[in-house]
Design brief:
- The structure is a single chain.
- The protein contains three helices and seven strands, in the order βαβββαβαββ.
- The protein is α+β, with helices and mostly antiparallel strands.
- The protein has a seven-stranded mixed β-sheet, sandwiched between helices.
- β3 and β4 form a beta hairpin.
- The longest helix is centred in the middle third of the chain and has 16 residues.
Amino acid sequence: MITLSALKDQTQIRKLFQKNGIEISENSGCLTASDGENILGYCLYELDEKKINILYLEPQKDLSLADGILRSTLHLATEKSIMTAFYSKKAPEDLFYKLNFIKDPENKTLDTDKLFKSCVSCK
């Protein structure tokens, strides 16, 4: 069974940020998709009181799993009434296009309203 949850172990979070060459801050977090102890995918993000910034997402070839991880990560923000979502230069923009989550590519914003719709872009 796949479990999606925010990673709590700061050492593991630091390792994933370092592995992907991303600087970590006090607002850094990681959501993982795991099957028991086996991590199947993850999303690195920065979350503050106004916005979430998606920094990196893995896997990028499994669209259904990536969609679930992205939706779960954005859900963390919406639970705190944060509906503004951005993505960084290191984030997989092509994947976000495939999943139909891009709201404004110029400003690198994601459409959090998609959380309230079905996964029609997943095939």
